[in-house]
Design goal:
A hairpin with a 3-residue loop joins strand 43 and strand 44 (about 595-605). Helix 1 packs across helix 2 (about 25-30) and helix 4 (about 45-55) packs antiparallel against helix 5 (about 75-85). The strands form 14 sheets. Strands 1-56-55-54 form a four-stranded antiparallel β-sheet. By secondary structure, the protein is mainly β. It contains eight helices and 56 strands.
Length: about 750
């Protein structure tokens, strides 16, 4: 077909088959990878989603024998594909080549024949790609519906318009963004604040947006004209929370200056200031009748104020730490508060008594919201959002998908969806009515800090913020056992050359040596005054070299089980250490943006290290170092978003690899020294060719990727995510790697 005819066919064929009731042809079309790929490429992800929505809207279901029957396999198959494409929409909109990897990463666990046939077909044509070996991405069937990306900083606030059609977000990038809820499309941005946007709300008529910022101002915006109408100035510190009265006449703001201000939206003037809190005002809620405002504060209290007089009515005491969030039930009878003390408290507004305390979050409760029917409570803490029964305090549903702190949640007016904003710079849309079973994803319960693959290619080992290490079968990608013993996050690990022992370093100031076969701790090395940030094993397997947060490098004897000598650096906060494959050189990196190269010498029976030169060029903290197998080059990963390759003999910077849009957290080099693997806060893993300096292939995760390792075969790659999940990947279709890559 000509491009014009092809585009027309891609656009109209599904509708044509559906209207002609040629459902089998429609089904074959929507389960064909080539069609999906072609339509995505020609018309974009939303047009593709609409094809599946079209089938879902045909009544009765075209694959159902009679209404009321359980949905048959074809309908389930199309639902799974539609949900997968929606979950990956933000990724595919930015990079259409990720289609095959996204389908595999989300659907491999589903054993429906049509799904497996689609996955067997899923393969980019004539280009290298990273094939997921397991279902490690969020699968369809969970409450997560869609992810919105576009902010370049922490999303601090979200609000939904009264008609439920638009989402407004405020972020660390000084902007507000307006999104279409149904399609996830960013409609426009509002620029004008000169500081971080901390709070957002919408007037009851849906016409205006009010925002509060670190720049000490509130701004009023017209949603129709997309213009700023006027600012409200008066606070002396950051405006952290804003609310509008139900009649739309007044806006109330809470600030780090410990005050609450009430403003008249018609006159654009301050009505009065409410003074009484002794610390930052964190959150506000207004009763449905508009007569009272409830404030929560870092002074551990909530206060109830009369909005007509500006007088404090009473104080609610009971939390033992900051009260970070507050909401009022739709009937105006109860107050809900969330605190840094990890509890949620329900209060009776009339009696001012605590009715119920909900315990179940493992960190501060950052945000709370109530469904319009008053029956369910949504609360966020760290990376997890939980849905609670307000009457019984029972947990109903966890909403898992963010990879960093969730600071804000809102509920749509129909009570069916939750909107959340996170430190991971995304907004997520959740379906509160999701009741389908889904496949749980395996991994750690917190972010992965380091990874290693054993030299014998049998195992991968992961170190996590959850204080544990896990050992994985590299062939099956299954977890074998968990190593427990550290009392704080495990920041670094290394494997001995004989693949028999794993060494781990932790914030608990210890280094632990584990027997890999038995899964048991062999011994513990103590002596670091600060947390152990990085460690390596020397190529001869005899010594451990560790770097602590205080800038001290220690060398330990594995045989003697003791410290041999200390190397003190002029720079505190050393992060990574690496040792050359010949064991003669030591490289260290720091938050001072530089890299130092040392030689290790033996004088008599004593080993010493001498600084040879300093490598300077990064403009951000150096986070990871690796040396090429030929001892000639060192590769550095930095928070300046770049990877640099240095000549170890001359100390010269050879070239820079640029392409990540976030911190580069780790790098690995293939055994032949020809390719580099990097992972970043931009949620991507990239494979680079060192000769051409080009990206060979990339893979997009659900969250920030913090660690990576490559197996001795040079094509099996493991990546660790902030969510705690591991991605097992294989580089395929790379002509430079030979026929073995097609496996």
């Amino acid at each position: 077909m000509s491009p014009e005819r092809q585009r027309y066919a891609l656009e109209t064929l599904p509708t044509h088959f559906g209207e002609a009731r040629q459902f089998q042809r429609l089904y074959r079309l929507l389960t064909d990878f080539d069609f999906i790929e072609a339509k995505l490429d020609a018309l974009g992800v939303q047009a593709l989603i609409q094809d599946y929505e079209f089938v879902g809207n045909i009544t009765p279901c075209p694959f159902q024998e009679k209404p009321g029957d359980e949905l048959p396999a074809p309908a389930k198959t199309l639902t799974l594909i539609e949900e997968t494409i929606r979950l990956s929409a933000h990724i595919l909109a930015a990079d259409k080549t990720q289609l095959a990897g996204q389908l595999l990463g989300r659907l491999m666990a589903f054993e429906l024949p049509e799904i497996q046939a689609l996955l067997a077909q899923a393969k980019p044509q004539n280009q290298p790609w990273l094939r997921p070996l397991t279902s490690s991405l969020m699968p369809p069937g969970t409450p997560l519906r869609r992810t919105l990306t576009g902010h370049s900083g922490v999303v601090n606030a979200v609000a939904v318009t009264p008609d439920g059609k638009l989402v407004v977000s405020g972020a660390e990038d000084y902007t507000l963004k307006v999104w279409e809820l149904e399609t996830g499309m960013e409609l426009f941005s509002l620029h004008g604040h000169t500081g971080i946007v901390e709070a957002v709300t919408v007037t009851p008529d849906g016409k205006w947006v009010i925002s509060g910022s670190v720049d000490k101002t509130l701004k009023i915006w017209d949603l129709e004209t997309k213009k700023e109408l006027f600012p409200l100035k008066g606070h002396t510190m950051s405006v952290d929370t804003v609310m509008v009265t139900p009649d739309g006449k007044c806006v109330i703001s809470g600030s780090s200056d410990k005050t609450i201000k009430v403003w008249n939206l018609e006159t654009e003037e301050e009505v009065f200031t409410l003074i009484g809190h002794t610390d930052r005002v964190a959150a506000l809620a207004v009763t449905p009748d508009g007569k009272q405002v409830i404030s929560s504060s870092a002074d551990n209290t909530l206060k109830i104020w009369n909005l007509a007089t500006g007088k404090e009515l009473l104080t609610l005491n009971g939390h033992t730490k900051w009260v970070e969030s507050v909401a009022v039930t739709p009937d105006g009878k109860r107050i809900i508060s969330g605190s840094y003390d990890e509890t949620i408290k329900i209060w009776d507004l009339e009696t001012a008594r605590e009715v119920l305390t909900i315990r179940g979050h493992n960190d501060s409760v950052e945000s709370v919201a109530v469904t319009p029917d008053g029956k369910r409570l949504i609360a966020s803490s760290r990376i997890i959002i939980k849905v609670w029964d307000l009457e019984t305090g029972k947990e109903l549903l966890p909403l898992i998908g963010h990879s960093d702190w969730v600071g804000t949640v809102a509920v749509t007016p129909d009570g069916r969806q939750v909107i959340s904003g996170s430190y991971d710079e995304t907004i997520k849309i959740w379906n509160l009515e999701s009741e389908r079973e889904f496949f749980p994803l395996k991994g750690h319960t917190d972010s992965i800090n380091d990874l290693a693959v054993t030299p014998d290619s049998k195992h991968a080992i992961s170190a996590s913020e959850d204080n544990t290490l896990k050992v994985w079968n590299l062939e099956t990608s299954e977890s074998i056992f968990t190593l427990k013993g550290h009392t704080d996050p495990v920041k670094a690990l290394a494997v001995t050359p004989d693949s028999k022992q794993v060494i781990s370093g932790s914030w608990d100031k210890t280094i632990r040596v584990w027997n890999l076969k038995r899964g048991k701790e062999v011994f513990c090395l103590k002596g670091s005054n600060r947390s152990v940030e990085s460690l390596v094993v020397t190529p001869d397997g005899k010594n451990i070299i560790s770097a602590s947060y205080d800038g001290v490098i220690r060398v330990w004897s594995l045989k003697a089980r003791k410290q041999i000598f200390i190397l003190k650096s002029q720079t505190r906060l050393i992060n990574p250490v690496a040792v050359t494959p010949n064991g003669k050189g030591l490289i260290t990196g720091s938050v001072a943006n530089n890299i130092k190269f040392w030689t290790i010498k033996k004088v008599g029976n004593v080993k010493t290290a001498k600084e040879i030169f300093t490598l300077e060029g990064h403009t951000g903290s150096v986070e990871y170092l690796v040396v090429t197998p030929d001892n000639k080059q060192v590769i550095s990963a930095s928070w300046d978003h770049s990877i640099k390759i240095w000549n170890l003999e001359s100390g010269e910077e050879l070239f820079t690899l640029e392409g990540h849009t976030g911190f580069v957290n780790a790098v690995a080099v293939t055994p032949d020294g020809k390719q580099v693997i990097s992972v970043s806060n931009d949620k991507t893993l990239k494979v680079w060719d060192l000769e051409t300096r080009k990206i060979v292939a990339s893979f997009k995760g659900d969250g920030e990727l913090l660690a990576c390792a490559v197996a001795p075969d040079g094509i099996t790659i493991v990546a660790g995510e902030a969510s705690g999940r591991l991605h097992f990947l294989r580089l395929e279709n790379s002509s430079e790697l030979g026929s073995g890559c097609n496996g």
